[in-house]
Amino acid sequence: MSTLTKPNHIGRKISRIRELRDMKQEALAQALGISQQTISSIENSETIEEERLIEVAKALGVTVEAIKNFSEELAINYFNTFNESDNNFNHYNTCTFNPLDKLMEAVEENKKLYERLLKAEQDKNEYLEKLLQVK
Length: 135
Description:
Elements: H1 10-20, H2 25-32, H3 36-44, H4 50-60, H5 64-68, H6 72-84, H7 86-92, H8 99-134
Coiled coil: 100-130
InterPro entries: Cro/C1-type_HTH, Lambda_DNA-bd_dom_sf
Pfam families: HTH_3 (PF01381)
């Protein structure tokens, strides 16, 4: 096994990011207005022109720096943090009250407001009737 570091193979990085974005070569080619074969040759290239890299990054929805600095280890670690913190998300999303109790409280409050409104209307009608009788 060699101890040499892997070269910075931009094409492989583009390929992996494309795969992680669940995008086919054809879709990326269409977004760039080029052929699928050109995408294949880009992904097999160790280097790429800066202008083309900018276009590819835009089509993939990432920055040029994200492509240049991409590594499998970082991607795996990034996605693993979601699994590790699942318990924290569940902790923050648990209710400290019964939602049905809150709903019933709102229903009761609405009922009281409706009864008050109805009483106010009845009082207004009685007042108007008294005014009509006086005239």
